[in-house]
Amino acid sequence: MPSKPKPLQEIVAENVRRERTSLGISQEEFAARCGYHRTYIGAIERAERNITLSTLEALAAALKLDIKELLVRHD
User: What does the domain layout of the chain look like in residue ranges?
Assistant: First the structure.
């Protein structure tokens, strides 16, 4: 039986966390770059928030990525 696909919210969370840490920046610094509060970024990275497209756009811009890079599963 095929495994259940990972929810997109979790994929985005993992990708944001991975990309942020690969840049060596804290959640606080990343939040400032995005224009959001650190606790909101933390909630996104824990897949606790269902973000809007405009938030996804801000996250990608702060990471200097194309939006689609945050939506692709990297296993």
Answer: 8-71
Query: Superfamily assignment of 8-71 in CATH?
Result: lambda repressor-like DNA-binding domains (1.10.260.40)
Instruction: Record the tokens describing residue 8, joined without a space.
Output: 């997109």
Packing angle, helices 53-63 and 27-34, rounded to 10: 120
DSSP 8-state assignment for residue 73: -
Residues 6+ positions from 28 with CB-CB distance below 8 Å: 38
Q: Is 29 helix (H, G, I), strand (E, B) or coil?
A: helix
Is residue 22 exposed (0-12), middle (13-18) or buried (19+ Cβ within 10 Å)? Answer: exposed
pLDDT digits (tens, 9 = 90+) for 6-49: 899 999 999 999 999 999 999 999 999 999 999 999 999 999 99
